Amino acid sequence: MPFPNIDPVAFAVGPFAVHWYGIAYLLGVALGAAYGQTLLARKDLWKDDRPPFDAPAIWDFAFWAVIGIVLGGRIGYVLFYNLPVYLADPFQIFAISDGGMSFHGGMLGLMVAVALFTRAKGGRILSSLDLLGAIATIGLFLGRVANFINAELYGAPTDLPWGVVFPTDPEGLPRHPSQLYEAVLEGVLLFIIIRIATNRFNALRKPGLVAGIFGIGYGLSRTAVEFVRLPDSHIGYLFGGWLTMGMLLSLPLVLAGIALVLYARRANV
Pick from 132, 151, 145, 152: which is nearest to 184 by CA? Predict the structure, then answer.
């Protein structure tokens, strides 16, 4: 299947170029905040009919979220994926326009931001993490689509009919469109599962449950796709086997998710 040749640059004004990847980040935050506002407005969805903060305040949090995502994502990439390069040339840490963001780092940065914001508002931090789990899938979907447009993070060679020949692949082989696999699993499917949990089974009334479902769902989805997604070339497979950095970083998410689900069920019986 030929790659739909989409310019990674959405538009440019003089020397200033706006990339689809950046638009995906901002749109993910905006749409996530809009959806989060509808959840916060439904006080009956939350424990004791008390959401972590008032619905309009989510737009203030959106500013915190952008800072948390960018700082956490960049720091995570530097520490987990390319530390020797940045130790040799620390100024490269600030060259964000050259790429290099870690989802796991961005998620940690976002969790810190939401915890600090909620504490300032006097709300339940676990409920805020539940809110984060409910809306993060939107940004994940858009981010993975942007990865596809950038023709990056593609998968191993395949003879399946939907294999894609990416223009950035020096070998020119049909490959798994692993970005789209992740968009469907981490974005669409996980959103549906959490939506059913929040609106049909009152999961938000058990603080920690939705965050746990997200952690388990994302970790398992990412791990599954890692089997067909090529690892970063400068890292390769860990310990000379099949384990990738993405799998390794997803394991704590799954374990934390399981712990949160068990805690939520026992604390809210």
Answer: 145
